[in-house]
Design a protein that fits this description.
This protein is about 25% helix and about 25% strand. By secondary structure, the protein is of the alpha/beta class. The strands form two sheets. Strands 6-5-7-8-9 form a five-stranded parallel sheet, with helices on both faces. It has a four-stranded antiparallel sheet with strand order 1-2-4-3. The chain is globular.
Amino acid sequence: MSSPMSSRTHFELNRMASGRTVLVQTSVIDSGVGIPQEDLHRLFQPWSQIHSGQHQAGKGTGLGLALSKQIIEKGHKGRIGVTSSPQGGSTFYFKIAYPLSSEHDTSNFVGAPDSCPVPPPTAPESPREYLHHQTEIEEGPFDVLVVDDSAMARTLLIRLLRGFGVSCLACENGEQAVELLSIRSCRLVLLDQEMPVMDGVSTARRLRQQHFFGNIVGLTGNTLADQISEFIANGADEVQLKPITRDRIESLLRKYQILRPLTTSIE
């Protein structure tokens, strides 16, 4: 009888050669079945799963590591990776370098967490804290509603949208979105397809039934043409595949006139 898989998290800090930068590395180490070397390159590709039928009972979309890579490498200029071997377990890790301010004394820095002047992580933002720091949004209309049951996906989308200066709210399922938009107005809904309580297709249909006239963009990791067509038939203006990039977010905001379209000036 095989023993159950265990996992542990390892955290270390190291001062880099400049003395003014600290390298934070976090590793998650497990004792599972491991991953063959020839499959490692697929792990961070969107919609990719390794032996999903054997180990995940077919659940998941294969987007978690792809989104993590985007956040770590594009958002924080860090690096994410994995080492593994069959029957030897796996180690997933990421590294991010942070500059130290001039007020920090690093002369006695030895790499131990207690001696590193890095602030503790903050608690995850709630949907209300996702607002673009605009007080008027509490009562008036807003630009974009993000509807996704994944907290990580909501956070990523909101941060991308904030970068363009648009006002945002977030919900974790379709029922919340329908209730919110019955009393508030927004111009664009970014709507995940697979959610508990009320899925994206049902949400789009309900929103159109209650005369929501804004634009609805479905978000999905499913590439099946009939399911995309069903989304559009029930009220979505279009469907975008996950994970969605900053460039595609900008294109949507300009297409639906939340941002001004790019124009070419003529001298």
